[in-house]
Amino acid sequence: MWQQKKIQLTPKNRGFHLITTEITAQLPELNDINIGMMNIFIQHTSASLTINENADPTVRDNFESHFNKFVPENEPYYRHTLEGSDDMPAHIKSSLLGSSLNIPISNGQLNMGIWQGVYLCEHRNHGGSRTVIVTLNGE
Amino acid sequence: MWQQKKIQLTPKNRGFHLITTEITAQLPELNDINIGMMNIFIQHTSASLTINENADPTVRDNFESHFNKFVPENEPYYRHTLEGSDDMPAHIKSSLLGSSLNIPISNGQLNMGIWQGVYLCEHRNHGGSRTVIVTLNGE
Amino acid sequence: MWQQKKIQLTPKNRGFHLITTEITAQLPELNDINIGMMNIFIQHTSASLTINENADPTVRDNFESHFNKFVPENEPYYRHTLEGSDDMPAHIKSSLLGSSLNIPISNGQLNMGIWQGVYLCEHRNHGGSRTVIVTLNGE
């Protein structure tokens, strides 16, 4: 069984955002899968997806602080600068974290650990609405 | 053909550990797959999975040194600090390396390069036993 | 439907290279898949794969500059040094970016965003030809 769905996420501020329920609320098809795999793929190069702690919001704030220190704006060696100082760092952050996630499905549910959630990592100041392609495969 | 298995890894010290055989020893089902995909998913946010060099143990040591420099403890901007100074860096390292791996299966075996192995990256001082969900899919 | 193919990439200089068409030109089978998933897996530990901006070549140059600053050669704590000063950084960069990509297939085509392309990230000075295993699965 294959299912594929394009999901338009609500626009987010720059930072790290928990989107587990924004995604799963649009996937009643999950219930029909006993064993399978969900892939979430983001169709952008300045925003990314990762899995991390779903409880304490300061974790997401600390991610934003650390990645800003990690991949600073206005490095003298940046040449791709026409779209603003937040653009080239956004590309680098996006590749460090990755464009897609694979999450096992078991008994109709995402089989993540109890402290895990899906993050949308918005690396632009004004990224707007982001599009993800969700692909479900299983039996 | 779908197969899914929860595997409890033996506890590891903080650092990078080769776990290829600890995983495959529990997967006789691999032999039945001619073409397919294996997903290993770790159900934690302070340990991660990656693929790297399987021969020289100093590579794993150098990873530990580099990630500790890369993502230091006790950064002044960390707010998520209640679980100890190794906790917030562990979350960040875990997202940099990732929560899951996809490895192609060919003729009943993992089709990695001869120098590749699966690492468990334990980012906590006392992480205990870690749980991974292995999903096999193929024909 | 499963298909698997070993693709030998042309040797690349150290740096980040757009290889979307080098890969898809060898995959006429894509056309037969309505919904599915493509996995590209690189069988090396000193080169990696990522998805990023496919238009401006300075983005790829800026990636190379940033990763060289990020993961410098000749760090005093490197012990795995016999294969040259570019080797240990290559291992670390490779795990930061990752060994495999999953890209959704829709209506016979890779369903990436219009600005996305597949990069081969060559982290060695003389990496030679790299091997990837492409696995297609879909209906």
Report on the architecture of this protein.
Three copies of one chain form a homotrimer. With 139 residues, chain A is α+β, with helices and mostly antiparallel strands. The first copy, chain A, is built from three helices and eight strands. Chain A has a five-stranded antiparallel beta sheet with strand order 1-8-3-5-6, with no helix packed on it. A three-stranded antiparallel beta sheet of chain A has the order 2-7-4. The first copy, chain A, is elongated, with a radius of gyration of 16 Å. At the A-B interface, β3, β4, α2 and β5 of A face β1, β3, α3 and β8 of B.
Keywords, please?
homotrimer, 139 residues, alpha+beta, 3-stranded antiparallel β-sheet, 8 strands
Write the layout of secondary structure elements.
3 copies of one chain form a homotrimer.
Chain A: E1 2-8, E2 15-18, H1 20-24, E3 35-42, E4 47-53, H2 57-70, H3 87-97, E5 100-106, E6 109-110, E7 116-122, E8 131-138
Antiparallel strand pairs in A: 1-8, 2-7, 3-5, 3-8, 4-7, 5-6
